[in-house]
Amino acid sequence: MKQNYKTIDYEWLTRPTGDPFADAGGFAIEYLSEKFPEKDILELIKYVIIDNYISTWKGKLHSYYHGSKITNPSIKTDESRIEGTMKMFENIITEREKSEIGFCRISGRETKLYSLGRESMMLAGSGGFINFHHFFDDGLKMSKEIVIRMFFMPLGTILLQGKIALLYSNNLDVVKFWVKDNCSKNASRISKNLQNEEDAGALKSEFTKIPNALFSFIDNLLSRTPNIQNDTSLILYHCSNFITKSELKIYQLPAKVFLFYRTCLQPKFKDDWQNFVRSHYFDGKHDGAKYNLQTGKVELIKSKKTEIIDQNEYRQWFNSIYNKLLNNKNIRKDILRWSIKQPFKFEIVSIYQHNIIGMKEETINKIKELAAFLVREEDVNKIKKRINALNGTKNASELRRFLLKQTVSPNFSEGKEKPIITIEDYVYYLFPDGSFWSEIRDLLLIAIYQELHEKKLISDELIIVFENDNETENVNE
Questions:
Q1: Are 145 and 56 in contact (CB under 8 A)?
Q2: Mind listing the pLDDT tens digit for each residue in 193-229?
Q3: Among 318, 309, 124, which Cα is nearest to 211's?
Q4: How far apart are CA 10 and CA 304, in angstroms?
Q5: pLDDT tens digits, 392-432
Q6: Which of 56, 149, 244, 411 could pair with 25 in a Cys bridge, judged by C-beta atoms 3.0 to 4.6 Å apart?
Q7: Contact by Cβ (8 Å): 130, 137
């Protein structure tokens, strides 16, 4: 980008600020300046106005701004919209626009400030209601660089459920990836000369469910930037700036969940994990539809005919695993139900329990040891009785009695020199203060079934049926 204007601090056009909307605009400017290094900032503004907001988006910026030179219904022609917007920015850049000296609300710099309201910035309130702002200001006070960045911001976002979706992260490489990928898609739309009115406006997500959209983005991110750092957390801002209903919802994906999900996509875990996730799509209109592990397709049997549900269709359905991971809900019960009938690497369960739930590795290792002991003979009848007894425990004392009867006593009777449960195991790892007994029971069942799958001892008579479980438990329960 050519730096033609001495009034502009060019570093602050792209420098990260910590504000998600300003940074999206800054990274969009960075993308365009790399694509058009011969253009100065006013020429980039003109390019975005004409090629994106007017020609491709058809002026549909109402989700972002109200009363702007582009969205104001009193401005009737595209020529007037272009001329009015360009004049506004020319006056700001040349400092002919009314301003005051102070500290910018976003950059923190002491400089000339301009008032931004709903016509120029997300969730900024209306300048017509001055009591909305501190000290009865007529808008949020921003530097000219931030004003410019906010104009480019829509290019780095998408529309999801008809509202604006903006991704932010403690890892700015992720934010750049998101913004520049959206900018690239917007650039490709320009040459297509969109004729359908429904295609106009900002980029639209292919998804209707927020968890599905977010995890699809993570899939794309990890496939194209495999060396992304592990301690990455994500925040999705989902908002609307409509004058009748301004709202903002924030969805957070902690770094520990990101790391767990990334681990599950490693080659040694990927098939198990994807089969598990794909089997948890649900849609009320397709009752009975099931994911076929052999064909890799979702199938629905109707009148002795099998209907194949296209992947693009079932990926729009509600997915309980994505929803729980995003909303801090425990997936232990889901893993248990799944692992009874399907092989599922216990290492995935171990990683989940250790990294997300915070369970000690010693506890996990002890559970694996106990599971191996409980299926040590290839006697289906004995194993069935133990599974039913374990599944039937209803409180901590019953679980303790089960372990005493089914592991400690037999281990002693068989003359084993090493105790299978020591006092240290019992106090610090199996039943420490603050622990949940049902968690130990469920994990022990999961480990038992995986032992059975590995030994190829699984059969219909070993399958247990669960009563309705509490689906709202969080990861700490």
A1: no
A2: 655 667 789 999 999 999 999 999 999 999 999 899 8
A3: 318
A4: 67
A5: 999 999 999 999 999 999 999 999 889 999 999 999 999 99
A6: 149
A7: yes
